[in-house]
Structures are given as C-alpha cells and as structure tokens.
Amino acid sequence: MGRVVVTEFVSLDGVAEAPGGEDFRYPNWSFEVDRGDGEKFKEEEALNASALLLGRTTYEGFASAWPNYDGTLADKYNGMPKYVVSNTLTAPEWTNTTVLSGDLATNVTALKSTVDGEISVPGSLALVRSLIEHDLVDEIRLMTFPVLLGHGRRLFGDTTGKTSWRLAEATTYGEGVLVTVHRRAH
Fold first, then answer.
1. Sheet holding 177-184: strands in order across?
2. Distance between CA atoms of 13 and 62, rounded to whole angstroms?
3. Interstrand relation of 177-184 and 139-145 (parallel, antiparallel or unpaired)
4. pLDDT higher for 20 or 1?
5. Three-state SS at 13
6. Is residue 174 within 8 Å of residue 36, measured between CB atoms?
7. How far apart are CA 119 and CA 53, in angstroms?
8. What angle do the packed helices 125-133 and 104-114 form, to 10 degrees?
9. Which homologous superfamily is 2-184 in?
10. For the chain, which residues make up each domain, given as ranges?
11. Which helix H or strand E contains 156, and what residues bound it?
C-alpha cells in the first residue's frame, strides 16, 4: 500500500509559493538561507520515493527542467513513475507520466493501492489542499525557513474538518532551517 507524502518549503508565516521560482515578489526566497545538510535530506527523500504525484503547474516546471539535468537525482526523477492531476493535460511528454483526470479521491485511492512505497507530492499547493481535504495524506514534511514573507500563497487553507497529526521527527539544518515530519494520527 502506498503512502502519500507531502513535502513543502514554507516560510515562518506559512507561505509556500515559489520557494525556488522567479515569478514571485521574492524570487528564490528559499535559496537565501543556507540549508546545510538539508540538501541531503531532500535528496534522500526523493531517492526513496516510489512515485511522484504532481499538480499540473508543478509538473510542467519539473518536466521542463529535470530532463536537462544529469546525475543520480535527475536519473531518479526522469525514470520514476509520475502522476499528474489534470483535467486538461492529454499528452504528457515527460517519460513515465500518467495523467489522472476525473475524481481526485477515487484516483488517488486507487494509486495508493497500486504503488508500493512513498508517493511524493512536492509543491503542488492546490493539489495538496485537495488531498488534505479528502484525507488522503499520510505524512507531511515541512522544511521551514526562518523568514517572514508577508505575501504569497500559503500551504494550509480552510478545511471542512479537523485532522490530527503527530510529530515524528524534527531536525534543524544550516542557518536555522527546521525540518519537521508529521504523520497522520489515526
């Protein structure tokens, strides 16, 4: 049985928009802080994933970038199964990509039953909010940067109900980047 694992870069005030993107009021804001060994954490996380689950915008960014890179991480991302949630994308060009259209809860529940291991969801804020709303997330990994942005899309929005989580790990890297791992308390 697969486990949906959300992984996000966030500011202290919860902004998760464009941590490495150019098209934002504070371009590449997450790169302004030294992550130290946090880079190893992110790489190990990616290498241990069995599949990627992405929203369309994040998918398009990954699909345009990763095929141009070499190395272990690029090989992993380019070769692994990728699932993109979209009702408009019909012909994905990135290797091993499957489009999931239609009912999100049905599709992700089926995906969890067919993938063995971690189904990593990096970025993809709208998708993450929907996954949380449908109670499909098993683990949330946050890399929290010591910066207040005061502007931008935040990771968490309103939900129709309460869910409980437990802190499984907390580690500080570099210049105060806090990585926390939260698992669903059932």
1. 97-100, 82-85, 51-55, 117-122, 2-11, 139-145, 177-184, 165-173
2. 26
3. antiparallel
4. 1
5. coil
6. yes
7. 6
8. 90
9. Dihydrofolate Reductase, subunit A (3.40.430.10)
10. 2-184
11. none
Question: How many angstroms separate the CA atoms of 25 and 55, rounded?
Answer: 22
In angstroms, the CA 121 to CA 11 distance is 18
**Helix 38-48 with 72-79: angle, nearest 10 deg:** 30
Distance CA 109, CA 153 (A): 27
CB atoms closer than 10 angstroms to residue 143: 22
- Nearest of 119, 115, 85 to residue 102 by alpha carbon: 85
At position 121, the amino acid (one-letter code) is V
Instruction: Please state whether beta strands 139-145 and 2-11 pair in parallel, antiparallel, or not at all (unpaired).
Output: parallel
Residue 39 has pLDDT above 90, yes or no: no
Q: Is 69 helix (H, G, I), strand (E, B) or coil?
A: coil
pTM given for the model: 0.93
Residues 161 and 83: their CA atoms lie apart, in Å, by 27
Q: Do 36 and 28 meet the contact criterion of CB atoms below 8 Å apart? A: no
Q: How does pLDDT run across 1-18, given as a tens digit for each residue?
A: 999 999 999 999 999 998
Give the tens place of pLDDT for each residue, 53-92: 999 999 999 999 999 999 999 999 999 999 999 999 999 9
